[in-house]
Amino acid sequence: MSDRHHAVWPENIPKHLSLPQTSLYTNLEVSALRYPQRDAIHYYDSPITFSQLKEQVDALAGYLQSLGVEKGDRVLLFMQNAPQFTISYYAILRANAIVVPVNPMNRAAELEHYLEDTEASVAICGQELLAAMAPVVGKVNLRHVIVAAYNDYIVRDTDLPLPPEVEAPAAALTDPAHLAWKDVIAADKTPSELLVGPDDLAVFPYSSGTTGAPKGCMHTHASVMATCVQGAVWSHGTTESVTLATLPYFHVTGMQGSMNSPIYCGSLTVLMTRWDRRVAAKLIERYKVSRWVNIVTMAIDLLSDPEVENYDLSSLENIGGGGAAMPAAVSDKLFAAHRPALHGRLWPVRNHCRHAHQSHRPTQVSVPGDSGVRYRFAHH
User: Fold this and answer.
1) Which residues pair with residue 320 across a beta bridge?
2) pLDDT tens figures, 316-370
3) What is the pTM of this model?
4) CATH fold label, 4-279+348-379
5) C-alpha pair distances (Å), 266 with each of 40, 89, 110
6) What's the CA dihedral at 253, 258, 261, 264 to 10 degrees?
7) Measured distance CA(326)–CA(350) in Å, rounded
């Protein structure tokens, strides 16, 4: 392996990492044990602690098992960014099953393909997506759909404008195959023993299908752990980090950088369901956000807001993302406008998911390793 990149390697970043040989769920279990009363998520000003997060994850895992979900089964997760996405993701893993995250822009035809491919018998979806999911219930193996209303997790008053999906209260469900999220969590079922480890399959994200039908990418707990830990170390993630989550969790960049890495660190995620540049600026200022995983168009949109200079964004220390490199002019503007007290430079480093596609268990890997392009503010 070439070491030419070591010449420009950032200071104080290790070149190799020893990885936890555990399941992804164990990251949440450990953080909840260490920091039970720390906030894991702020959702439009409504908090969820690590203890509360784990309790709801375990309750949902137990319910999934009561529906017949067994080790190695696939469960569809069809939802926008919301606390229920995080809870569902870790509950599926705790139930010894495999997460199949689905793009919320998909409709019945695509969903039927995923069901045929994965043979999933259970799906979890946002209530605004139920109209797309309902026609495929009863087809292939799908028998149960757990329906989540994002508004259930708005438990405090907020001055932030809410997206329509978040503002909408839970709707009544009449089909017996449709199960209300609140009822599922309230059942408080206890899951059976955790059986999965690093070599077991964990997540099947699907390709976009540009060369045919979408194809599932088979990730083990170990391969997802690799990029989760790499991303945390590369961005100097600690318990005190605050991450703004704006990229969709169904995609690996948002899933790893804005959900799995903060849970591994035991740090706070400030979560948005839909992108809104003014809300993002308010949240950065309000919660002193230090990490923001985005795409270039979000950064450009934020900077083009004529009101952006009215917000204090100086807490930002690490801005990264995926899909395409950030133009130098945009990164320079971010640096000049919002880090005036920091005399330094941006480290542009192209990252990838190479380790997430290994067929063997990674125990030590090179960093960086999560997808996209990451820029790190660094002192001279």
Assistant:
1) 293, 374
2) 988 887 777 777 887 777 777 655 433 233 333 333 344 433 323 444 444 443 3
3) 0.90
4) Rossmann fold (3.40.50)
5) 7, 17, 35
6) -150
7) 10
